[in-house]
Specification:
The chain has 237 residues and is of the alpha+beta class. It is built from four helices and twelve strands. The strands form three sheets. A five-stranded antiparallel β-sheet has the order 1-8-4-11-2, with helices on one face. It has a five-stranded antiparallel β-sheet with strand order 7-6-9-3-12, with no helix packed on it. Strands 5-10 form a two-stranded antiparallel sheet. Helix 3 runs antiparallel to helix 4. The longest helix is centred in the first third of the chain and has 26 residues.
């Protein structure tokens, strides 16, 4: 199915190219919730099936720890409240309340990094149609730990580099105005809790073929330092 990406570009044009759209909130995750999440992730630190794009989704987590699964949903809802304040109310745009890619856990190990990219557009600014990446319009990253070396997220166009602290939250647009990198993990394990929300453009568009179970192996991967291509999307900053 062809998409009308101009509908998304119109919203990005409203948001514009402004440094203030890269939003950092410290201590977004409450201390007691953070401890619960950290304890859960520590049980997976030696699990080589959980790495890079091979992430832990809500459906996986709820089988092992319903409390942590509820926390994923809690902070997903809290995330949308920030989106309402910082983008919907500020710019008068519409954003779907249900995320295009719900909150989940990603594990980064030494040797992994992410090259310069944007989440919903290709390097030439055209829409990333594969796996519906073109709907990754607002990126959210929550960080449960910082006991690792490397792994800073950088936005070169704005001269911004962030080494997040546990509990921190970052929100930014997914288009090519907000290209970013993640530096090499030199030591330790870096965890992230990403999600993506789509603009409400009044039309339900998809590039997924009806009846087909989509494999993210069909997508261009952005992971570096991993010999085997992960099965996840690769925008897991």
């Amino acid at each position: 199915m062809s998409i009308n990406y101009d509908l998304y570009r119109e919203v990005f044009d409203i948001i514009g190219k402004d440094k203030s759209n890269i939003i950092l909130i410290n201590n977004f995750i409450e201390p007691e919730d953070l401890k619960e999440i950290q304890d859960y992730l520590n049980t997976h630190k030696d699990n080589k099936e959980f790495m890079g794009g091979k992430d832990l989704r809500h459906a996986d987590v709820i089988k092992e720890n319903p409390v942590v699964a509820n926390l994923l949903k809690k902070y997903e809802n809290k995330t949308y409240e920030v989106i309402k304040e910082k983008f919907i109310n500020r710019y008068g745009i519409r954003v779907l309340e249900k995320p295009e890619n719900p909150t989940h856990f990603v594990k980064w190990v030494p040797g992994m990094s992410s090259k310069l990219h944007s989440d919903c557009e290709k390097p030439d600014g055209s829409p990333a149609e594969s796996a519906n990446f073109f709907k990754y319009n607002l990126a959210i990253l929550m960080y449960p730990n910082n006991d690792y070396v490397g792994g800073s997220i950088s936005f070169p166009d704005y001269d911004i580099t962030i080494k997040p602290n546990p509990g921190d939250f970052i929100l930014f647009p997914g288009n090519s105005y907000y290209k970013h990198t993640v530096t090499n993990i030199e030591q330790g394990i870096r965890y992230t809790m990403p999600s993506w929300f789509a603009f409400d453009v009044g039309v339900d568009m998809t590039t997924l073929e009806p009846g087909r179970k989509y494999s993210y192996k069909d997508s261009v991967q952005l992971w570096e330092g991993q010999k085997v291509n992960p099965v996840g999307p690769g925008h897991e900053d």
